[in-house]
Amino acid sequence: MGRRILITGLASFWGGRLAWGFEQDPSIEVIVGMDTDDPVVALERTEFVRTDDSYSTLARLVRATQVDTVVHAGLVVNSAVVPDRRLHEKNVIGTINLLAALGAEDSRVTSLVVKSSALVYGAAQEDPTWFREESRRTSAARTRVERSLVEVEGYLRSFAEEFANIKVAVLRCANVLGEDLVTLFSKALMMPMIPTIAGFDPQLQFVEQVDIVRAIEFAVSRQLEGVYNVAGDGRLPWSEIRAIAGHPPLLLSPLGTSMSAAALARLGVIKLPPEALNLLKYGRGIDNRKLKSVGFDYRYTTAGAVRHFVEGQRLRRVVGETEPSYRYQGDVESFFRHSPAIVRER
Amino acid sequence: MRQIYGPIYHRWFRADWEGLEKIPQNGGALLVANHAGAIPADAPVIMHGIEEELGRPVYGLADYLFRSLPVIGTAWARGGGVPAHPDNAYRLLREQQQLALVFPEGTKGTGKVFSERYQLRRFGRGGFVEIAMRAGVPVVPITVVGSEEAMPIVAKSSRLAKIIGVPYVPITANMLLLGPLGLLGYFPAKFKLRVLDPVTFDVPPDQDRYPRSRVFEGAESIRQEMQKNLYDMLRKRRSVWFG
């Protein structure tokens, strides 16, 4: 019998992209996706179930579909796009409901993969240059999205302790850049002038969208257990990232930064939440060696991800909206992997 | 950074080294030095000096307070400064086998007033010894003479410091002479630096914890050795400005 997978947050970029990948895999028998909104990609054999913000129907769903693997890709990490109340509902209450459903007596789930964020480490002046998975954050989480993610990871830890038969993998992803994805930093880099806090040149780390999808697929197929950082190799100073993007800085005052950020938000230029301002001051690095040591290889370094993103933007400026590149690549890859037309050695 | 600082190192402070050969040519080592001056000049002198004389980079581990200051924090990071966090120190010393520099006195050393010059303060909680033990590298003590006179503190305001949230707000002799420019202008004191014998600890690396007593003992004996050498260097110094 093949694997039966449930994806939360199917309408998110990650959910859609993962479902796509799983559909190509014949060893995966059933794919069920849930979200509050319609999926944005055309899916062939994925079943879509609409839920409310806090996934209250999940227990019934898990029981009825008898899934063995759950991918929790619905955590909100960009607080600029979701109102505070909804963020708490989705992240904290959603996860509690999910865990309750997985821990029910008749659940057959053996593996849970959660896409979390490096936001759980925060960004502060006391930070080490590189956070390892076991490093603790140096100051208490103050912003709402960070607090909710720290809380979620706490629940996941105690769940993993309680249910030793369920393998829980938590992937803490660095800031993402990708052609098909709008994030806070991709927005900032596309602005004609890039927001910069005067006098600070933080070292930032990025990861390409493909590498995150591949990391989640890797965690599902290997049934990983434990916490893993997901980030491209190396860090880049913000000034260098600006130079690669080719835009001048838009200087924000180092004192009362949140006030100048509020002015920008009011003007409708860009909304920079407090966790982004901390990042623009102190930067953050997470150590990606643990995931590498279990056999994962990244396609892009931090610099590679930035360059790839900027090149994609240049192309878009010339030819307009391009066909999402992943559809094309997915076809080609599945052709090479599964087509009988390919002559295989051995 | 190196090009800008070169002339200051040679012409202004005219740094003189003694015992440079005691710094290992390869492998990690933790350099510890005495710390003085309102805006300490000793860190860049040591870092630049070793880089120039031995061709090895030195990473200065400093109070993270630096990072919250605009411009200064960025300049510090560009010049090879690293926030002092045990993880960072371990990575530099053990995994990358580099030279790292710490000032165990911390801000207690730089916040001294002029009358207390060349009196070593307490060496924190001896954390630097524990770091060297865990990383399995020797500690190389360095004593510096001259930094106290480059920017002496005449008085300090603890109330103002509390308001701004910094360890001390100094009034330096430089400020009295040059006004606010005194924050940038050092007096041309002659810098003399002496490298002492490396100290190794007979313990296995990578342990979770080390006996407190050994850590304190190690830190205290290094402190005494450095104090002894400082007095010796001061005995031999004829002039603050010419050495």
Pattern of helices and strands of chain B:
HEEHEHEHEHHEHEHEHEH
Total individual domains of chain B: 1
Structural class of chain B: alpha/beta
- Low-confidence segments of chain A, given as residue ranges, are 325-330
| SSE order of chain A | EHEEHEHEHEEHEEEHEEHEHHHHH
The assigned structural class of chain A equals alpha/beta
Strand ordering within the main sheet of chain A: 3-2-1-4-5-6-11
The biggest beta sheet of chain B, please? 7 strands, mixed
Number of strands of chain B: 9
Separate helix tally of chain B? 10
Number of helices of chain A: 12
Q: What is the CA-atom radius of gyration of chain A, in angstroms?
A: 20 Å
Overall pLDDT confidence of chain B:
86
The percent of residues in helical segments of chain A reads: 40-55%
| CATH architectural type of chain B | 3-Layer(aba) Sandwich
- Hey, which two chains have the biggest interface? A-B, 18 and 18 residues
Beta-strand level of the residues of chain A, as a percent range? 15-25%
Total DSSP E strands of chain A: 13
CATH topology term of chain B: Glycerol-3-phosphate (1)-acyltransferase
